[in-house]
Model the fold of this input.
Amino acid sequence: MKIEKYILISLLFLALVNFLVFSFDILFYRFDIDFSEGFMFVALKNLDNRLPVYQNPNEYFFNIIKYPPLFFLISFPFYKLFGLSLLSLRIVSATFFLLTVIILFKFLICIKRDFISSTIFILFPIASTVVFWQTFQARPELVALFFSVLSIFLSYIYNLKKDEKIFFLALIFANFAFLTKQTFLAPILAIIIFYRRKFLQVVKFESIIIVGLIVLNIITDGNFFLQLTKFSLGLFLYRADMMNLIYIQYGLLFLFSLITIFLLKDKKYDLIKITFLISLILNFILLIRDGSWIYYLLEPIFYSSILLYIFFVKGKNPLVRYVLIVLFISILIWNVFDKKPLTYLFNRDSYPPNVNYQADLKIKNYIDKNNGNCYTENPSHLFMYDRIVPESWLLIELFRNNIVDEDDFNFINNYSCLIFYSRVFLFPNFNEVISTYELKERIVWTDINSNKLDVLVYER
Done:
């Protein structure tokens, strides 16, 4: 088994090098990597201008925040320090991901002091397709993931030491995870289920959080709950493609983790098993509902790694270790033919962000030519003009959900330049909207999943 172990470690370090190169490329890239990144600046702009963060979506339909406030509060100092740039939010993601890796390492070492094995089970999530492509985007998932892993780590420590202060901290961080992104409910539910004897204590604490959220909802005239429920959960319903290679390979990983749950008999690991199960079920439902948004797999992948590490270092049957190593090697090699976490270093110019640099410069030139008076789905190009506009894909989904009507699209006529992705043809009155514009250029742009899109540039 030594040969297989060395092969695995070599592949993991190769993946780590690719990961670091890709992460730095993303971190300092001045334009969007994916559509959703510019979304986050709406809340920060509102905070900076002392405007309500959660506004009425029926009146300000491009001001849909969709997330609880903690991510924006954490990001605001970085925003003030680095200005209106994607770097300010990507640094937040990078920082919290590094902290997550540190906590995960301490977690694994606490379970059993095995530096080589713990290194393998830390590098594997980093080498996974999901983490590789999502890590340094300007999104709240990695901040929520940090609070999630930290809360379960502290809960595990409490189970060993019975220090009430540690339990209280675990509960706080579990709620921080939820207050960063509402889909990170697993730590709270796992703590409630595992520590059933402390149910009343947990309920008292959670009642304070609930009261705080109710107060926030009252202050925002009901728009807080409206945005985080109806207008967040009501969009993008059930459009999954579950035969994607990514889902198949991680389906095998999660299947092995589920088998591990039944084979691990030691009750002190029940908290980790419960957390994994809850996170897997919740995120699987969301994944089916939203389709291609693979960042839902982030949380279950990390808890799967912890579970498999326990099985790896505690299992007495050497066949278990062999099967796990072969499984890891197979997934890593599989990734070579999928999203290429092992080959990015050798194809940097073929993948985002580098492949889009010339396209983004062309788009920027059109915006500069029109002095920023442009409607564009790629909002990072408007940062220098201190402007954010509603994104066309969001408008389309709002229209499908009867939140806006055709007349709401007429605001586009206020712009001298329109820069749309090809899917904008789903607009209800697109031909009428662009009747006074002329198509100037089609620019090929590649998204984070390496899908090529036509960017259509119109001018009056």
Notes: The radius of gyration is 23 Å. Residues 234-243 have pLDDT under 50 and may be disordered. The chain has two domains: 2-30+66-348, 352-459. Residues 2-30+66-348 form one domain.
